[in-house]
Amino acid sequence: MYEKDGTKYFIVDSHIHAWDGTPANQANRYGEGFLNCFFDYHRNLSPESEIWTHEQFQKQSEEKILHDLFEVGYVDKAIFQPTYLTDFFVNGFNTTEQDGALAEKHPDKFIVNGGWDPRDGEAGLGALERLAERWQLKGTKLYTAEWKGESKGWKLTDPWSYRYLEKCQELGIRNIHIHKGPTIYPLNRDAFDVADVDDVASAFPELNFIVEHVGLPRLEDFCWIATQEPNVYGGLAVAMAFMHHRPRYFAQIIGELLFWLDENRITFSSDYAIWTPKWLVEQFVDFQIPEDMQDEYGVLTTDVKRKILGLNAARLYDIEVPAEMRAAEPEVPAGREPVASELNQEVLSS
């Protein structure tokens, strides 16, 4: 929980990792390059006081994770999002099992999400069933640009992907997080294109599609899809980190998201351990859209910030929020309706 000027904020960090990027776990030069690319994002967008050494960045201890998130980071609940990358890392970069081992020791602090890859075919469907039973999954994280042998990616619209999304519905896994947007060495930018979200969001209205990184740099593509698909959400991982060095760019991002989606479909993410939640939470509560941009984008109210920092993700994952930290405003205030999804919201709930 974070408190500022008498206002309390319930914090759900909806995109975190417990990774092993050490040289001992790197299978090849691609593993080293992937970790180095993450580190460059960390080094170039963090405040100077928050920059770690490369060695600190490679892997975090249990004590370090608990300290950064819960002791000083204000987080009430954190959601693990796995990133397997078994072609690049000997034991995987950040697997459900690795995350689950930590979550099992601290069940009041963490939620574990699973992962799947349609290229695993029938065997993967069985593995997903076992993951769901073992970890009581409510969500999953997908990495459409991940390499597997000769393949350098897949699409949500692939026939086997449909089979996996149907399995998610059957198993009650309703939150589908997808990395869409920023490329990471050596993965290909086009394999992270947000375009395939449009089709599956229409085909699976009972599922929520949380597009992590809001499709950057294809923000406009993402917004035009999300405004007509009421089950599409924007995850602020990476986008939020621009707040420190590029505040006007971040104001443009958050302003566009509020215009096209509204404040009920945007979620906070630190993307730990690329960044730590402490400075992100503190700066976002203090942040305001510059005056010369407010005619177009409006202002960030306390309730908007409360929803983004925790209440929206809490709703997706049925996390109980103390009464004093709930928003006072209605879900969609007058004059802030989504551009093109209002009637489709009724379709989804019918």
TrEMBL record:
Residue span(s) of domain Amidohydrolase-related: 12-319
SUPFAM superfamilies in the record: Metallo-dependent hydrolases
Parts forming coiled coils: none
InterPro entries per the UniProt record, alphabetical: Amidohydro-rel, Metal_Hydrolase
Gene3D superfamilies associated with the record: Metal-dependent hydrolases (3.20.20.140)
UniProt cross-references to CDD domains, sorted A to Z: metallo-dependent_hydrolases (cd01292)
Source organism, top-level taxon: Bacteria
Pfam families in the cross-refs: Amidohydro_2
Protein name: Amidohydrolase family protein
Disordered: annotated segments: 329-350
